Fold these 2 entries.
Entry 1:
Amino acid sequence: MKNGWEVVIGLEIHAQLSTETKIFCGCSTRFGDEPNANSCPVCLGLPGALPVLNWRAVELGARAALALGLRVNERSIFARKNYFYPDLPKGYQISQFDRPFSEHGTLEIMTATRDEGGHAREWRPMTVRITRLHLEEDAGKNVHEGLPDTARYSYVDLNRAGTPLAEIVTEPDFRSSWEAYDYVNHVRRALQWVGASEADMEKGNLRCEANVSVRRIGDTEFGTKVELKNLNSVRFMQKAIEFEIERHIELIEAGGRVVQETRLWDDRAGETRTMRSKEEAHDYRYFPEPDLPPLVVTPEFIEDVRRSMPELPEERRRRLMDEYHLSFNDAVQLTSERALADYYEQAARAAQNPRGAANWIRTELLRELEASGRTVAESPVPPEELGALVRLIDEGQINGKQGKDVLIEMFNSGKSAAVIVAEQGLAQVSDAGEIEGIVEEVLAANSQQLAKYRAGKDSLFGFFVGQVMKASRGKANPKLVNEVLKSKLNK
Ligand SMILES: [Zn+2]
């Protein structure tokens, strides 16, 4: 960023909680069904229909809150957020306002400075203050294309209306677009890790908004902020923030003023554009939802949730570094998702070589998985088998190059490493007696070279090694060949 300026960023994330049914009715939350197939009087907002809280949403909300270092309030209040929009049939959204589900989080994340190409250079820990995580329902969706006559009409699909969301709001703690980027990725992984949300931005079940302002270094007041929406990926968010920082600084340095407004990211144009200005901003007239009692959770409930949680990603990264002596980069990649970390630990145990298992997973296995469009959980090579392959190499049964071919064969056939090595006759000959036999044959067949060698032409040693390896079709253990040859030649 330009010298003398500082950027201030706060983030809001909406994550869809992975319940099977909606938060206040029994309709399915399945993605991709026929429009309006999953709707009922409650989520359609018909008169007299009453909401009933889905307790699974509370459990998943608690998992999310604990995974992000928030304190869960024993008593919180649902509130009506009033506004008119066609995808909101009740005319209000049930959310939480002054008594949220959880508050006061402190989350440690890792963030990196980046080079021009966006590659991480140096990682450091950063503490993010999370203001609150509250529960609310999602709205429906207006459909403007893909249906007949959309030139004249818009459609409303209410399948999404009433889907449970966790809204996660931070303090304005970020000082660069990359810090914001690393935070959103951290949250995404944490929510997936504890099973609270699929957190897939492409499916729209994780959405983020950024509040961005700039000020001159040393100023204590915040500059005028702009709200960025419609950020369909973490990378788009990062680019949009970067664009805004430049725009604000140029504007102020040219004597202009930043206008408080909501802007959208247009990735094709590589710029943000105005969506609505502050004058059109809503006054939501929040008030407590009269149809729902206060949400009360007991300390025992919170304790049960805490006990059922897996080791969190950052703890696991640190443990992998301590226990298996992995590098930071190895440990970061292997804890990018929980299934991969589980896979790694099983493979490392089977291999009895943690670094070797890490290398084979990071280079060979992940490449094969990516090429075949599979996840770690779908790997045709189970972790114990990958570990067995690493052991075969460590024991000198096959070499590393053969190992790569064996892994591809394991991947394609589902056979074990040992079976493939046996079937293809790949195992090295490490039997001294067998190698002695080959050496004697080679010496007998090359009596002229043998005489020259014994007369002092040492350089012929390599020739004999080559002949023995050739006679064994490359399978003789090279170290043993050297030893046997030396003893026979120097007789
Ligand atoms: Zn419903």
Note: The first strand starts at residue 5 and ends at 16.
Entry 2:
Amino acid sequence: MSEKLDGTVALVTGASSGIGQATALRLAGHGAAVAIVARRRDRLDELAVRIKEDGGRALVIEADITDRDQVTGAVETMIQELGRLDTLVNNAGVMLLGPIVGAPLEEWQRMVNLNVLGLLYCTHAALPHLLAAAEGDPRSVADVVNVSSTAGRVARLNSGVYNATKFGVVAFSESLRQEVTARHVRVSIIEPGATATELASHNRLVVLEEMAKNFGGIELMASEDIADAIVYVVTRPRHVAVNEMLIRPTEQER
Ligand SMILES: NC(=O)c1ccc[n+]([C@@H]2O[C@H](COP(=O)([O-])OP(=O)(O)OC[C@H]3O[C@@H](n4cnc5c(N)ncnc54)[C@H](OP(=O)(O)O)[C@@H]3O)[C@@H](O)[C@H]2O)c1
């Protein structure tokens, strides 16, 4: 086990499955105490058991991060229980694809509420604690890692509102980076390509069929591939900030 995150605390949103779950496991394996946040408590409880069995420390926080009061409460609980915050991984997200014409507006609301507003609420609540952590032991640096997507770099047909949310994450991240980097809060954007998780499963059947045509033939990445990238970012020395990582499956062309 690396010593690099010993004595630090991380908060991972969307830790009940996929990239968030893998990231929480990896961060705990590197010595961080991890607050794991999502709505499915049973999945978080199972993850906490795994982390503890591996010798790590986990705090389960059941919260819907589209509700700003629940976000405030989650961060307060984390500070009460774990005492500090060094690493915020804004990972929770939803991807609902399809044409813009005639799209169910409820799908757009879900994406904007979670991918944009949820991420903003978490960042707002966490920043005072991250700035405080960056001022002292053990590392004198803190991290915000925002999980965007290749969809935050390249707009595609049938991905308009998901693109809008992830482009928004990229813009917000760069502005925040400029604001806090001199105070040693690093802001990083992770941009995964197609990764085998539950993400696509929330789409309508007609959209799932279209996605199968685009990505059906390629070897997808695993959540652990992205978790490795996140751990790389947050374990750099204090003077090194990895601002952006675009990671695609080798066979993904666009
Ligand atoms: N998989 C890919 O190909 C891919 C590619 C590029 C980017 N990404 C991004 O990676 C991130 C993680 O996605 P994933 O692929 O790991 O998908 P996933 O397995 O579906 O994970 C999404 C996570 O978000 C949580 N979540 C959803 N709504 C929430 C809410 N209102 N409050 C709190 N948590 C909520 C879910 O937990 P609960 O349902 O328990 O709340 C779940 O843990 C997303 O931001 C996604 O856009 C994924």
Note: The chain has a mean pLDDT of 96.
